[in-house]
Structure formats: C-alpha cells, structure tokens
Write a structure and sequence with these properties.
Largest sheet: 4 strands, mixed
Structural class: alpha+beta
Shape: globular
Radius of gyration: 19 Å
Number of strands: 6
Helix content: 40-55%
Strand order of the largest sheet: 4-3-5-6
Distance between the termini: 32 Å
Number of helices: 8
Length: 243
C-alpha cells in the first residue's frame, strides 16, 4: 500500500489526523502544571502557548470549512493581532483546561472534516495571509501543525519520532518552500540510504547528508543538524527561518 501523501483527498488523511492528535494528547496528559508553564522550543512561548495555538488553530480551520460549506465569507482569523491575543489569553489557562480544550477542539475539527460535503472541497477560502488558498489544505496543514508543534512542546517527542510517511511527504514540500529564498546558500542535500537528493542554487559548493528526519528537522529549524555530514568538511550552512 502506498504511503499517504498531502496530495491525497482530505478525508482520506483524516485517520492520520486522529493518530497525530492522539500522540499529542498522550504527551500533554503526562505534563504537570509547572511543566506546561515551562519554555517550549519556540522563542518566547511556553508549552501552554503552543497548546493554545494548536487549539485555536483547530477552531480556525472549522471556520474555513464552514465558509466553504455555506459560501459565506468567514475568515480564518479577523487579523494577526486577534490570533495573537487569543493565544495569549488561552495560554494563561490551567493545564486541565488546556487539555480538555485540546480534546474538544480536535474532535470538533475532525467531525467537521468528516462531515464536509464532497462537492465543497476545492473551494478557495480566507486563510490568514493567503486569502485565495484552497480549503483542501485544512487537513494537511493541521497534520503539519500537530507533528511540528508536538516537537516544539519539548516534552519527549522529537523529529526521529515523526512517522516515516510524514517525513517523506513533508521533506520535498519544505525544500520547495525554501528553494526560491535568496538567503538559502547553494548546496545539495542527500538522504542517507535513498536515491534522493535535492539541490539549492545552480552550483552547489557543499553537500549535506543524513537521515531524512534529521534533514527535515534542520531545514525547519527544529533540530541543530547533529548527525548530518558536510562535504567538504566544515560547519553546517546557515539557513533562514523556515516559518
């Protein structure tokens, strides 16, 4: 059976959302109140901020699905300031409230995905910062948030814990998102044990190689690149922030 791809139909990816959310829930249920107030991997954010972002992000995607279903103009968020205020307000809640909120928000989103009419997929909706983007991206973007922000919680789940299918689907997308950025140095990426290579720039002067999950984490700023090799020998090239 072929591995899932972000190009698959949104509803076919729903079981992967369920699995990813279940892994996040298992992690946050092990945290204590002091731990959820501790720093995440994201500068300036506690673990509570990351959870608040995941929960409100789920609600924002329900709004996009409702917009596509009804034809009404419903924005993902009114604006960036509103999004930031929501996260700050919810990050002050207790761990018990945040965990319960995660359950409710996740279940509400998965129900909205499952119930979304087949003829309403493919419609453009008002994403924050990308108003003409398809509602189909509700599902893959939720998967990315769950997997990447699970790592950002810094609570025992790391890039090597990412499912193989996620790494295989995400790596080429992240490469493509970085390829047109002038800050990215000319280099070649080689995935260990695979006939897979990616190139940045017309004349790469260095080659970076290693496990696909470690390469992906490095490109996304979710890993320091430990275990990667550089040829000719030297430090890893500097990369711009992914997002």
């Amino acid at each position: 059976m072929p591995a899932p791809s972000f190009a698959d139909s949104p509803t076919s990816l729903l079981p992967r959302v369920t699995e990813a959310a279940g892994r996040v829930l298992a992690t946050i249920e092990r945290l204590g109140e002091d731990e959820v107030r501790g720093p995440s991997r994201l500068p300036g954010w506690s673990r509570a901020h990351v959870l608040a972002h995941l929960n409100r992000g789920a609600d924002s995607r329900v709004r996009l699905l409702e917009s596509a279903r009804t034809g009404r103009v419903i924005r993902q968020y009114p604006d960036e300031a509103y999004r930031e205020r929501e996260i700050e307000q919810w990050a002050r809640r207790s761990l018990a409230e945040l965990v319960a909120d995660f359950r409710v928000a996740d279940e509400r989103l998965r129900a909205a995905i499952a119930d979304h009419p087949a003829d309403r997929w493919g419609r453009n909706v008002r994403w924050l910062g990308a108003e003409g983007r398809s509602v189909d991206d509700v599902v893959p973007s939720r998967l990315r948030e769950l997997e990447v922000h699970h790592v950002d919680l810094d609570a025992g789940y790391g890039p090597r814990d990412w499912p193989d299918w996620f790494v295989q689907a995400e790596l080429p997308d992240v490469v493509a998102s970085l390829r047109d950025r002038p800050e990215v140095p000319d280099l070649r990426l080689v995935v260990s044990g695979e006939d897979t290579a990616y190139q940045f720039g017309a004349r790469p002067t260095r080659t970076v190689g290693g496990e696909s999950s470690v390469l992906l984490a490095w490109l996304m700023g979710r890993g320091d690149g430990e275990g990667l090799t550089v040829e000719p020998a030297g430090p890893l090239p500097h990369l711009p922030d992914w997002k």
